[in-house]
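The data are quoted verbatim here:
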Amino acid sequence: MRLRFSGPIWFWRGPSPFHFVTVPPAEAQQIAEIAPLVTYGWGMIPASVAIGGTTVTTSLWPKDGGYIVPVKKALQDAEGLAVDDVVEVPLDIDA
């Protein structure tokens, strides 16, 4: 499954801080339909994300009935990304 959407990068300060982009509701619904086939536990879904010229593997996190995409530090550094930057997110999930 290949999806494309855009959204702002936001910061979650927890025991381990992370940066995320929220998957919009329509795309989250499409992911939910295949989630039982691809999850490896706790609702996590392996995916690959390409922002700019950088591609990384990651796992979507379930949150509030939808999904969020972690924006890894390596991706932030490679593309010069910061909180509130709006990014185009091509997302691939092997289903």
Summary: The radius of gyration is 12 Å. Helices lie at 25-38, 73-79. Residues 25-38 form the longest helix (14 residues).
